[in-house]
């Protein structure tokens, strides 16, 4: 029997290897973004105009030799501009929004904190590929927990109050009048706190099974002077307190991380008032794999390998929806839990928002 070898298209090999070189630089540069973020290098460059390596080092209390190497990597990647005639480097105002302005919806440094912290668990996840075991959210480097809050935070700040909650039927009126809200799988409570700030007549409780995340959430609440109106309690999604107590239950990027999302959804239904609403925020995803073969799908599938899928597999049932579950599977979860009304209320650049009602 003769074995035919597929003809190799040399141009295709070159193109792909060229692509991989770009990805190699981007991968290592992720660590440099974290350094730039943590050491205030981007912030020192924002609005500073063309700056020399020595000036940047002096302004940030860092060493010129390291800063020079860092700036050259930033320039090679197009993050900053380099002027050979003056040997000065400029962070364009548009890039500063993404790299130096924590309050901007474009702020991206948290993405790289999340990515680099996520990769610390590569040996354990590699082993899990073999064993099929899960790896809990709590088992990851703490940079994952903080990085996740900083990853989603800018989007939440720009969307939850201004567009996502208003897309739900009657919810804003209830929040303005004074509602009881549970934010389930709240992590560091960024969503909980910003809703609490916007609706001072309502009461908010953030639940999560991870005590360390909630300790950070409580600290944020105290720093914001909201210690009395916002509570954070350790509880699993299937067991947080309050039969028929809530006007609104929210799950922000947490449902697909749960081992038993149907069990959690059933519990949400039991804890909602009869006219209550469950707002489900999930990663943007199409219905089929082929709909997700794009940069956003790639990022979510990649994180899902390390974070979402192992998180679910570490819990009972282990349904492992993954970060690209898509609307039909989220609808199935809600329907299986006995909800009768389900609709896609709105969507963001990286999120889908569903309104689910008893
Ligand atoms: C991707 S993080 C999202 C955190 C936060 N909602 C946010 O958007 O930044 C998922 C969160 O779900 C929590 N979680 C996962 N499974 C859970 C469960 N069964 N019960 C309660 N919380 C759970 C994790 O501890 C983690 O904080």
Per CATH, the superfamily of the largest domain is Vaccinia Virus protein VP39
- Which fold name fills CATH's third level, the topology of the largest domain? Rossmann fold
Task: Please count the beta strands (DSSP E, at least 2 residues each).
Answer: 9
The percentage helix is 40-55%
The order of strands across the largest sheet is 5-4-3-6-7-9-8
CATH architecture annotation name of the largest domain:
3-Layer(aba) Sandwich
**Strand residue content:** 15-25%
Please, how many domains? 2
Give the SSE order as H and E letters.
HHHHEEHHHHHEHEHEEHEHHEE
**Distance from first to last alpha carbon:** 63 Å
Bound molecules: S-adenosylmethionine
Q: How much is the radius of gyration in Å?
A: 23 Å
Describe this structure in a few short sentences:
The chain is 49% helix and 15% strand.
Question: Your description of this structure?
Answer:
This protein is of the alpha/beta class and 358 residues long. The chain folds into 2 domains: 10-100, Arc Repressor Mutant, subunit A; 114-357, Rossmann fold, CATH 3.40.50.150. It has 14 helices and 9 strands. The chain has a 7-stranded mixed beta sheet, sandwiched between helices. Strands 1-2 form a two-stranded antiparallel sheet. The longest helix has 29 residues, at 10-38. The structure holds S-adenosylmethionine. The site of S-adenosylmethionine has 22 residues, from helix 8 and helix 10.
């Amino acid at each position: 029997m003769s074995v035919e070898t597929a003809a190799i298209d040399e141009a295709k090999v070159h193109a792909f290897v060229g692509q991989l070189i770009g990805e190699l630089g981007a991968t290592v540069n992720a660590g440099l973004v974290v350094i730039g973020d943590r050491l205030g290098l981007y912030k020192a460059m924002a609005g500073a105009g063309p700056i020399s390596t020595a000036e940047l080092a002096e302004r940030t209390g860092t060493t010129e030799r390291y800063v020079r190497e860092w700036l050259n990597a930033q320039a090679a990647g197009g993050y900053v501009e380099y002027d050979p005639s003056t040997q000065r480097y400029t962070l364009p105002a548009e890039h500063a929004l993404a790299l130096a302005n924590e309050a901007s919806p474009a702020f991206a440094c948290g993405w790289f904190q999340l990515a680099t912290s996520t990769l610390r668990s590569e040996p354990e996840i590699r082993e899990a590929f073999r064993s099929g075991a899960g790896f809990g959210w709590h088992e990851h480097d703490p940079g994952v927990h903080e990085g996740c809050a900083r990853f989603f935070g800018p989007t939440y700040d720009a969307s939850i109050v201004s567009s996502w909650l208003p897309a739900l039927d009657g919810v804003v009126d209830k929040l303005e009048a004074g509602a009881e809200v549970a934010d389930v799988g709240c992590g560091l409570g960024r969503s909980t706190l910003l809703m609490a700030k916007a609706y001072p007549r309502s009461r908010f409780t953030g639940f999560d099974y991870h005590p360390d995340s909630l300790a950070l959430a409580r600290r944020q609440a105290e720093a914001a002077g909201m210690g009395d109106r916002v509570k954070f309690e350790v509880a699993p999604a299937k067991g947080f307190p309050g039969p028929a107590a809530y006007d609104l239950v929210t799950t922000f990027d947490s449902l697909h991380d749960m081992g038993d999302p149907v069990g959690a959804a059933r519990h949400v239904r039991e804890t909602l008032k009869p006219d209550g609403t469950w707002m489900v925020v999930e990663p943007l995803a199409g219905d089929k794999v082929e709909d997700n073969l794009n940069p956003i799908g790639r990022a979510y599938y990649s994180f899902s390998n390390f974070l979402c899928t192992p998180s679910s597999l570490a819990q009972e049932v282990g349904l492992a929806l993954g970060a690209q579950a898509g609307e039909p599977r989220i609808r199935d979860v809600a329907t299986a839990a006995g909800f009768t009304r389900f609709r896609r209320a709105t969507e963001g650049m990286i999120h889908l928002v569903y309104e689910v009602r008893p």
